[in-house]
Specification:
This protein is an alpha/beta fold. The protein has helices spanning 3-13, 19-23, 25-44, 69-82, 111-114, 116-125, 135-145, 242-249, 263-272, 306-312, 333-355; strands at residues 56-60, 87-91, 103-105, 129-131, 151-155, 167-173, 200-204, 220-233, 239-241, 254-258, 279-282, 301-305, 320-329. The protein has eleven helices and 13 strands. Strands 1, 2, 3, 4, 5, 6, 7, 8, 9, 10, 11, 12 and 13 form a 13-stranded mixed sheet that branches. Helix 10 links the parallel strand 12 (301-305) and strand 13 (320-329).
Length: 359
Amino acid sequence: MNTSSFTQAMHTAWKKKGLISTLLLPVSWVARAFIARKRLRYQRNPGLSHQSRLPVIIVGNIYVGGTGKTPVVIALVQALQAHGWRPGVISRGYGAKVGKQARTGQGQLDPALFGDEPALIAQATQAPVAVHPKRVLALLQLQEAYPQVDVIVADDGLQHLALGRDLEIVVQDGRAIGNGRVLPAGPLREPASRLDYVDILITNLQPGETPPKPLKAQTWQLSMQLAPVRVEQLSTGISMEWAAWHVSHRQQAASAVAAIGQPERFFAMLSAAGLQLNQTVALPDHDAYDSSPFTTLSDPIILITGKDAVKCRRFNDSRLWVVYAEPVFSDPSWLEFCHQRLTVIASQKSAMADKTPRL
């Protein structure tokens, strides 16, 4: 069984508390104990967490794998920019070979050096980006390289307790908490009770999907759906609004390829938008595209995601069209809430810094 098949099999098993999950429960108990001990250590020793002089907002998840964080990060950064903030983004840089020093950049970034998601975020927002598995190193390097940055958005890192934070946003999808168990008996990186203590919970739904049962906690809960807004021919840079592109190309045969956490979500979005797909190819998340997966497809149109596009330009395949999607939120006022909260937090941190004695 290859890695992709194994991952799919585990996600299937995690939908319920079946035999496989139950057999793995003892390991999950050990994992839960480790998670609780680690969190208690940081609670008793606040100095272990780096508290930045800038407001820090984390967009993460507790369900392992892709839930749709990247579109939320992009929407948040763009909303903050519209309010006059100068956000910088830090990320692990999954798939990139990052050395001892954090790597920073802005604009068009090489996904081999930064990771596909940070490269996409940098391209979509033009915000400066820093990557390193140790998020504090990424934050410090970002501040040094881009002193104009006045708020930090962390792409993932909810469980990275060494990084202090001021706001926490969790993104889940229609699977919610699955069978409710911690890895490996379930899909959760932390116990489901962790959701009671985050600021905002966003559920990323597929078209026609029913929202999961809401939490009893005071966490602000809303949903979102991704919708295609723009299409770009990767080889030429020709760009069209989705509606116009769909009208002019709907008679042509099309396929779709995606190397994201949940490829079926991308395919379902295209189908819901009125597109008929002859073939769909689901690749492993963060696939490096070492060779072209498009040679076996004969359709004149092949649709890919923005995350895949940052790695596919070198193929110079005129059939590739990038679908840029944006989230539609059931309650978009959460973005204004973040702006207002961060304004207060920034003021408080500035006042504390002014009171700190200078040696």
